[in-house]
Specification:
Bound molecules: NADPH dihydro-nicotinamide-adenine-dinucleotide phosphate, ketopantoate
CATH class of the largest domain: Alpha Beta
Family: Belongs to the ketopantoate reductase family.
Number of strands: 10
Oligomer: single chain
Number of helices: 12
Catalytic activity: (R)-pantoate + NADP(+) = 2-dehydropantoate + NADPH + H(+)
Pathway: Cofactor biosynthesis; (R)-pantothenate biosynthesis; (R)-pantoate from 3-methyl-2-oxobutanoate: step 2/2
GO cellular component, one term: cytoplasm
EC number: 1.1.1.169
Length: 305
């Protein structure tokens, strides 16, 4: 199976690197600066699951290559307008696109762009970032990819992807209700990114602060109401499940959005919080979500000016 990983950042570099490490046929579509980095040093991962440094194949937009059987999309949401047209030449009649971005809004965009039949549902759990040298730093022990057909079926291509991921140094799970899983991750990350960025802190100090737990719980109620309104198969106890996950996080855990803010980079608040507000039922009160969206939009606007 020929795999194209679009972006070699914290997520793409990690999961693509783990596939390359197992000997899969992986190529990274990157921009020129990243290509030079990867050509001179190889792909470097520092991880509790095992460090690695390995040569990887790269192309830049416009290079002749492909088509690829599987395109794993791992850019930020705000890169998509620029990146999607550059992928088209590498997509053939039988190519499948597996996005690992957080959020939900990109799925409609991808279905419209490449055709609904090509798009799988996907998400990941990993806490990783690029250090100033372009090396991947993987923090907590999670490194899980979840993927599936939107109709829940175990198709031939799901079996092929299962083979691709098997024996690689990562966890991969084929889901029978991927839309529900995507929404649960979206609920979890919108609240976690929102709170950690609003308070500019990892999770532990927030949960130990005077009103932190109460604010977290209220925000999560707002977000779960939107999730239940939009995703009819959403678990009744999604709020409890998400709070259990939050309470089990390590003290120092940060969202990737906070790590990006700390580096002065753009953030995905439009894709996370802006989209949630647009999808909310008209009569739902969302003061905390609006506070987070407004606060982070001010940061975001300052990045552009
Ligand atoms: N990091 C994490 O812990 C997690 C992140 N996520 C989600 O995964 C997604 C990716 O996040 P993350 O990996 O952290 O982001 P990064 O910023 O680390 O990586 C994104 C990569 O996309 C590349 N890119 C952007 N535009 C193009 C282009 N036109 N062509 C080729 N490559 C391009 C960037 O390359 P360049 O170097 O050229 O800028 C960058 O390396 C986001 O939706 C995020 O929310 C989900 C779970 C965990
Ligand atoms: C919370 C975490 C690290 C879990 O994967 C995440 O998705 C993110 O910060 O983007």
């Amino acid at each position: 199976m020929r795999v194209l990983v679009v972006g070699a950042g914290a997520v793409g570099g990690y999961f693509g690197g783990r596939l390359a490490q197992k000997g899969a046929d992986v190529t990274f579509l990157v921009r020129e600066r990243r290509q030079k980095q990867l050509q001179s040093n190889g792909l470097i991962i520092h991880s509790v699951k095992g460090d690695t440094q390995l040569p990887v194949k790269t192309i830049v937009a416009g290079d002749t290559s492909g088509p690829y059987d599987l395109v794993i999309l791992t850019t930020k949401a705000y890169h998509l307008n620029e990146v999607l047209p550059t992928i088209t030449p590498y997509i053939g009649e039988n190519s499948t696109v597996l996005p690992l971005l957080n959020g939900i809004a990109h799925f409609d965009m991808l279905k419209e762009y490449y055709g609904e039949e090509r798009i799988l549902g996907g998400l990941c759990f990993i806490e990783s970032t690029l250090n100033p040298k372009g090396e991947i730093e993987h923090y907590s022990t999670h490194h899980r990819v979840i993927y599936g057909e939107f109709n829940g079926l175990k198709s031939e291509r799901i079996e092929q992807i299962e083979n691709l991921f098997s024996d690689a140094n990562l966890d991969a799970v084929a889901s029978e209700n991927i839309k529900n899983d995507i929404w649960k991750k979206y609920i979890f990350i919108s609240a976690m990114a929102g709170m950690t960025c609003l308070m500019r802190s990892s999770i532990g100090p927030i949960l130990q602060s005077p009103s932190g737990p109460e604010l977290y719980e209220r925000l999560l109620h707002e977000i779960c109401s939107i999730g239940k309104y939009q995703e009819k198969t959403m678990d009744e106890d999604v709020w409890e499940q998400t709070m259990d996950r939050v309470n089990s996080l390590s003290h120092g855990m940060k969202s990737s959005m906070l790590r990006d803010m700390e580096k002065g980079l753009p953030i995905e608040t439009e894709h996370f919080h802006g989209t949630l507000l647009r999808l909310a039922p008209k009569d739902l009160d969302t003061p905390l979500l609006q506070t987070i969206y407004s606060t982070l939009s001010i940061y975001q606007a300052a990045q552009k000016s």
